[in-house]
Write a structure and sequence with these properties.
Layout (H helix, E strand, L loop, with lengths): L4 H5 L6 H43 L3 H4 L11 H28 L4 H10 L15 H18 L4 H18 L5 H6 L4 E5 L5 H8 L3 E6 L2 H13 L6 E3 L19 E3 L4 H6 L13 E5 L2 H5 L8 E7 L8 H11 E11 L23 H4 L5 H11 L2 E11 L13 E9 L7
Parallel strand pairs: 1-2, 1-6, 2-5, 6-7
Antiparallel strand pairs: 3-4, 7-9, 8-9
Helix pairs in contact: 2-4, 4-10, 13-15
Length: 426
């Protein structure tokens, strides 16, 4: 969203720089509260959708209702049983989200409902409540699906498809214990942009590398912080990532099935008896919250990283050219970009029309985005200065796929390793 800076600043006496910082902080606080509200309101939105689906069946003509299964007929025990399964799944998911909110130190959904009920200004009219957007709820649902991908046994197949090639390439092109490490007196340092819930970043750290995950989405960051720092296989959570889905379902029980998270103890991966570091301190691991370009384009980040491990990330850029330029600057000489993913450009603009001006309600990045094919991407890499060491096209991968669904997106990904040459190579 764009702020009208002149209008916002004219009534204040502080310098423009201070006022701008205050506005930025206020905007960040509002965004944080909006994300927390999405977590709090999740079950309410899911219940609304469930009730709406029942109402649509109830509104059918009697001749159509007569042929419905009993589980779709209003007032039957079978319908009550089916709705109970969905309701239980809503409660499971809300309990997990409330646990995240508790860990974050803010009100959970129960406290939020209680405060609303006790507030003297509450009228009981739902229109007086500050409801979050459907888009924000959709992001919460994406987080729950990402839990399956990153932190459940069911996601092991996806992780093997996507993370294993990256980990193997890191071991090959950024080996630990080489002469350069001894000269620098440090372990190789890797950035994982678009780290999501942090599994790939933590696995690379468990392999012996200093790793920093980077994530922009606060919806993701709240859960990744909780999982990485406050979860254990001794206290697993059961969640149902697929509720809210009403299409391409084989069995009515499919959306309510549960997964258990986490499948491994994140702390034990670095500190446990089975880790590689039980007799020594583990490598440094951190998560950097914020926009990739804003963080790593700073001069303080230039030449500081041995590798960038990019998984389903490059196509999140409005300009992939800018991403690649930032990666070039942040890598040391001899550093590598290891990439795996499709080119599903997230900010690809809506179809243009000769009689249509830009829709001002859309984020400006939709209109700034440039989409390129892989051949163009390779030429951009070489023009920047990279040398491509390895590449493979058509590598099959899934992303938060529901294996029981009648439909899934099967990506044919590109995997490549691109190196920033050393000056002595020229």
């Amino acid at each position: 969203a764009h702020l009208n800076m002149n209008h916002q600043l004219e009534c204040r006496n502080e310098s423009i720089a201070i006022q701008a910082q205050q506005l930025e902080n206020e905007q960040e606080e509002r965004h944080f509260e909006d994300v927390c509200d999405a977590y709090r309101q999740y079950a309410t939105f899911m219940r609304c959708e469930r009730v709406n689906r029942v109402a649509r069946f109830t509104a059918l003509p009697q001749s159509q209702k007569n042929v419905l299964p009993l589980s779709l007929r209003e007032g039957t025990k079978e319908m009550q049983d089916r709705n109970k399964l969905i309701q239980d799944a809503e409660v499971r998911n809300q309990f997990f989200l409330d646990s995240v909110l508790n860990y974050t130190g803010v009100n959970n959904s129960q406290q939020w409902h209680k405060e609303r009920a006790e507030n003297e200004n509450t009228t009981g009219d739902v229109h007086d409540i500050k409801w979050v957007t459907s888009e924000s709820i959709s992001k919460v649902q994406s987080v729950l699906k990402s839990l399956m991908r990153d932190w459940s046994i069911e996601g092991a197949g996806e992780r093997s498809m996507c993370y294993a090639p990256i980990r193997n390439a890191v071991r090959k092109y950024v080996p630990i214990g080489v002469e350069s490490d001894k000269v620098l007196n440090r372990l190789p340092r890797i950035v994982v942009p678009g780290a999501g819930l942090g599994r790939l970043a933590l696995e690379l750290c468990s392999d012996g590398y200093e790793v920093q995950g980077n994530e922009f989405s606060l919806h993701m960051l709240l859960v990744s912080d909780f999982i990485l720092n406050n979860s254990s296989t001794y206290r697993p959570f059961n969640v149902s990532p697929w509720i809210g889905t009403s299409c391409n379902i084989s069995s009515s029980n499919d959306p309510t099935r549960t997964i258990s998270v986490p499948d491994v103890d994140p702390g034990a991966m670095l500190l446990g008896e089975e880790s590689n570091f039980k007799d020594q301190n583990p490598p440094e691991f951190s998560m950097a919250a914020g926009d990739f370009v804003s963080i790593y384009s700073k001069t303080s980040e230039h030449g500081q990283w041995d590798a960038v491990a990019s998984c389903f990330f490059l196509d999140t850029a409005p300009s992939v050219v800018k991403y690649l330029q930032v990666i070039w600057d942040m890598l040391i000489e001899g550093g590598v970009l290891i990439n795996f993913g499709p080119l599903l450009f997230h900010w690809s603009s809506p179809p243009a029309r000769p009689d249509e001006v830009a829709n001002s309600s859309l984020d400006h990045r939709y209109f700034d985005s440039v989409d390129v094919c892989y051949d163009d991407l390779k030429e951009i890499l070489t023009q920047i200065g990279f040398e491509i060491l390895e590449e493979k096209l058509g590598v099959e991968a899934l992303y938060t796929a529901d294996k029981l669904s009648m439909m899934s997106s099967n990506y044919q990904c590109v995997y490549f390793v691109a190196r920033k040459p050393c000056r002595k190579d020229f």
